[in-house]
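2024-03-11 09:14:02 DEBUG pipeline.ingest accepted 1 chain
2024-03-11 09:14:02 DEBUG pipeline.ingest length=313
2024-03-11 09:14:03 DEBUG pipeline.predict start
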Amino acid sequence: MLKNITIKENNAKQRIDKFLSEEFPEYSRSFWQKMIKDDLVLVKNKKVRSHYKLEAGDKIKITKKEVKKEAKEKEISLKSDKKIKFKVIFENNDFLVIDKPVGVPVHPSESTPSKTLVNGLLAKYPKLKNVGENSARPGIVHRLDKDVSGVMVVAKNQETFLYLKNQFKERKVNKEYLALAHDKVGKDESEINLKIRRSKRTGLMTISTREDAREAKTLFWTEKRFKNFTFLKVKILTGRTHQIRVHFKSLGHPIAGDKMYFIKKYQKFKAPGLKRMFLHSHKLGFKDKNGDELEFIVELPKELKNSLENLAP
């Protein structure tokens, strides 16, 4: 974060406050709006407003002193924490693939300044602190929501971090999830291609046709239909915040157990024994630095498997 940022083509036409809040999620959008208003964020060494639309080649300069002050005020912790447990399913000198537990945020932020996966990673891999482009996200190439479990890859050195990050940006990574949605999904397979943006009113992600909304594509296949639910395999072609959850709510089939993106009429329908959101990162495929195709799978956690097996046909 403590460096100049050059805007690439895929980030052009975004509002600068929105871009910065997504690039550095440990700081809120309102924080960046204040930074911009106080002339502590410059574009091409010139003052801009929060609604400024970025252009490819723009160079953003952030005042380091103020960013450090904000981090201190929010008490974001990068201390190692052995109490944060996670399972390593593969490891080499370049990266590790883990099974992220449900209920654990990936990295520190204003709302969760400590007790994150990053804190647990640093306890076992202290050298990670030097990997990445953001000190609050050492080694983190991609993220899963707090209430999503499953497979993740973490870079162990800067070369691998940049190599993997580029694959994610170019959408060359295969990301598949298993999900349980409310009601019976009619189609056996389909694509959801609806843009997403954050609502200023609620703070949640929402479907939008506005100019500042971002492209989001989701593919899904119906695995099995039950009386009040549908079990799905889901593949995301983009990686927007809460993408799967927002897309399926837009279809009228919110993810079971999702307390944020729910539809009121379905709250009376409970999956047996389900005490969490039924969304699991099942498969992750990417290339290593040798160009070899790799694929890692984490099966459904026991609690989700048991709930699925006990659904009424």
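2024-03-11 09:14:41 DEBUG pipeline.report The radius of gyration is 20 Å.
2024-03-11 09:14:41 DEBUG pipeline.predict end
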